[in-house]
Amino acid sequence: MATVEEEFNNIQMSGKRPIPGQSLTNDPESPAPYERAPKYTSVHAASEYLWGTFIEPTTYVNLMRSVAEGVPIMDITQIILFTEFQKGSWNPDLMLMLAEPVAYMIMALAERLDIDMVIYEGELDDENDEEEILGTQIDEDRIRTIIKRGQSGTTPEGILNAQMKESLQSLPEVNLEASKAPEPQENKSLMARPTGV
């Protein structure tokens, strides 16, 4: 077990802390989006906003392509939640409360297309009892529950409301192979002879 001094040194060396006085250097007349009042203050309202974003055609295809390529769902969840936090959509507390619902929403969309999912990088093959998500330790049992439900294709009751379930059924089928970005073409030298002259 680490001593208090060792723990203090680990915190100091990790770099995961703000610089002392950093918040005092920001201009109070033009605060960053995340320093203002958040746009969403309830899990329900934020979930509906995210679901509407997820089922937009471009976002839907890109999201499903990422899942199909093996990007872990918890990594996608973290990126989405943190990006929206930086835009001022919610505060850090709501961001943490949204982690599970967002992961289940993405899983429901992927399950609809029968995409094999990777829930978490390494799927708990390490020896830690806890995993870090959004800079917070999450209990291994919660992660195991998410993995088990992801493998069985079940979404907990209350994550998707009736309107979300209805929109899930009406989503168009997506051919992920056809929707891939075109292969980059060979770059020709600026000094090459022009074609067609």
What does this protein structure show overall?
The protein is globular. The chain has a domain of 137 residues. The longest helix is centred in the middle third of the chain and has 14 residues. The protein is mainly alpha-helical. The termini are far apart. The chain is built from eight helices and two strands. Helix content is 46%, strand content 4%. A two-stranded antiparallel ribbon has the order 1-2.
Q: Which labels suit this protein?
A:
mainly alpha; two-stranded antiparallel ribbon; single chain; globular; 197 residues; 4% strand; 2 strands
- What's the multimeric state? single chain
Low-confidence stretches: none
Helix content: 40-55%
Number of H/I helices: 8
* Number of beta-strand segments: 2
Mean pLDDT across residues: 76
State which percent range the strand residues make up: under 5%
Order of SSEs, N→C? Answer: HHHHHHEEHH
Class from secondary-structure proportions: mainly alpha
Largest sheet: 2 strands, antiparallel
Can you list the strand order of the major beta sheet? 1-2
Overall spatial form:
globular
- Span between termini: 76 Å
What value does the Rg take, in angstroms? 21 Å
